């Protein structure tokens, strides 16, 4: 299918009726729905889908830089590039598929322009897979096809759709150190048992366990984030003031979204020539009480 700017999108469906939609612009997942058709990812009503804007919602890929932690533009260039579909992708590994064949491989290689600002040849293969159980799996493989090493950071900047920010808590981050982007990236240690929200939050939790859960009391449901190769977890909610300053975000929309990203930020990944890095994120929902 195509969106209204003529950008190709791929829709994945599983036999139970769950679906996921991926745009070639940014290699960005823009929708993930349950078998009842309920949307699980937030996209702003003010999102701008016209390149070269990044799209506010879904799962933008921040690569090869996270935020402004480097010389590149905010969150790197990958989310503003056209990716291409690999028509002959390598087969699915049974562990990667959760028993379903609904997947697509998107590829990103640097353009001449990208090489001028970041002089490293790479191939980024993003596999998006919808499991038979409705889980959404994002598997990234990044290969150094250059003759010198390079380092990068990456985040799956996941905008979860939630009932109300005051009804939500995150578990799995207790006792961890985090970098606070609101305090000159200073380092703190999480004291609370769970993380709840009453003001702007913009943090990178370091070396978290491989499972983090987001509980939504009002919706009686839990998002589970399982990750491999992605040590860090970003937590972001812009709250009231910052929401008003973003042109592509509604003033009140901060109540309905929470970004929780599997990421590798504090310690950048270094790849030698010919080496490949793999990072896997699996998102699922379960009812809770
Ligand atoms: C977060 C960053 O994860 O992404 C924030 O830590 C930033 O500082 C946010 O505001 C959104 O970034 P952008 O570029 O999509 O507006």
From TrEMBL:
Its EC number is 5.1.3.15. Transmembrane segments: none annotated. Substrate binds at residues 56, 74, 79. The keyword Isomerase applies. GO terms for molecular function: carbohydrate binding; glucose-6-phosphate 1-epimerase activity. Keywords: Isomerase. It catalyses: alpha-D-glucose 6-phosphate = beta-D-glucose 6-phosphate. GO terms for biological process: carbohydrate metabolic process. Pfam families: Aldose_epim. GO terms for cellular component: cytoplasm. It is an enzyme of class 5 (isomerase). Belongs to the glucose-6-phosphate 1-epimerase family. This is glucose-6-phosphate 1-epimerase. It comes from Jatropha curcas.
């Amino acid at each position: 299918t195509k969106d209204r700017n003529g950008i190709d999108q791929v829709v994945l469906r599983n036999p139970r009726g769950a679906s996921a939609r991926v745009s070639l612009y940014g290699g960005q997942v823009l929708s993930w729905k349950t078998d009842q058709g309920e949307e699980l990812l937030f996209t702003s009503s003010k999102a701008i889908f016209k390149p070269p804007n990044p799209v506010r919602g879904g799962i933008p890929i921040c690569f090869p830089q996270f935020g402004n932690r480097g010389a590149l533009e905010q969150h790197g260039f990958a989310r503003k590039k056209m990716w291409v579909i690999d028509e002959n992708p390598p087969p699915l590994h049974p562990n990667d598929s959760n028993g379903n064949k609904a997947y697509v491989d998107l590829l990103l290689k640097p353009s001449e322009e990208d090489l001028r600002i970041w002089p490293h040849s790479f191939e980024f293969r993003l596999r998006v897979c919808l499991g038979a159980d409705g889980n959404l799996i994002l598997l990234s493989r990044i290969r150094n096809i250059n003759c010198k090493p390079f380092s990068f950071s990456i985040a799956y900047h996941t905008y979860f759709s939630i009932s109300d920010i005051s009804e939500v808590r995150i578990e799995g981050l207790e006792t961890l150190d985090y970098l606070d982007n609101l305090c000159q990236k200073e380092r703190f240690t999480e004291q609370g048992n769970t993380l709840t929200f009453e003001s702007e939050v913009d943090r990178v939790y370091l070396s978290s366990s491989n499972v983090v859960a987001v509980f939504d009391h009002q919706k009686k449901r839990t998002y589970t984030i399982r990750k491999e190769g992605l040590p860090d977890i970003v937590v972001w909610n812009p709250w009231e003031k910052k929401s008003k300053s973003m042109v592509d975000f509604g003033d009140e929309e901060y109540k309905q979204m929470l970004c929780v990203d599997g990421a590798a930020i504090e310690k950048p990944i270094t790849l030698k020539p010919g080496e490949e890095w793999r990072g896997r994120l699996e998102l699922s929902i379960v009812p809770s009480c």
